[in-house]
Amino acid sequence: MSVESSRLPCSILLLAGGRGQRMGGEDKGLLQWRGQPLIAHLHQSVRPLTDDLIISCNRNHARYAAYADRLVSDDSADFPGPLAGIRAGLFAASHGHLLVLPCDAPLIDARLVADLRAIAQRNLQVPVMVRHGEFWEPLLCIIPTALKDQVERAWQAGERSPRKILLQHGAVGLECPEDDPRLANLNTPELLHPPAGMSE
After folding, report:
1. Range(s) of the domain holding residue 48
2. Strand 32-33 to strand 36-37: parallel, antiparallel, or no bridges (unpaired)?
3. N or C end of the chain: which has fewer CB within 10 A?
4. DSSP codes of every residue in 114-156
């Protein structure tokens, strides 16, 4: 898919700054899946969609630099959670909207991204979040960068939940099936490398 001027221009943020607790502390975005690092799968999907591809990472900067136009890092060393990366991405973004995706969801496809952008195009002032069943997915979202100061104020006040902040700012949902395989998070060793005889 090529960048289309008729679609909402977005900076894209790939979140790869976590502690990797469920992966034994390993840098999740660089773990191998189907022959490539997880970050490479997302890079292939979204690279044609933006001229501003940002990765939030706190380790292995040289390796991540190959997959991004720019890198951002948390401003504290204690892995304070994904909102820290989103904060940094909002202030770094060069476009009016920031599309956020987690590095451990390599099955996200062009259709899901296009659907998010289409809803954001119709709701320019508020965030858009993936929703399946009763669950919101705050790390699969598009945020107007005009909200960066509000996000920063919430952060400084102690808020750490991206979902809560996005809902407070009137987030609308992209409804997906409850069992949508594109939303699979490969965030444990068992999911990343299923036992022999089980499908991935």
Report:
1. 11-192
2. antiparallel
3. C
4. HHHHHHHHH-TTS-EEEEETTEEEEEEEEEEGGGHHHHHHHHH
Site of tokens 């954001």 = 120
* pTM: predicted TM-score of the whole model, two decimal places: 0.88
The structure tokens 């939303």 sit at 183
**Confidence (pLDDT) at 188:** 54
Q: Note the residue count of the chain.
A: 200
Strand partners, 32: 37
Phi, psi (degrees; rounded to nearest 5) at 51: -105, 10
What is the DSSP code string of 7-21?
SPP-EEEEEE-S--G
pLDDT tens for each residue of 92-123? 999 999 999 999 999 999 899 999 999 999 99
In whole angstroms, give the CA distance from residue 151 to residue 182.
Answer: 28
Instruction: Tell me whether residue 69 is in a domain.
Output: yes
DSSP label at residue 87: H
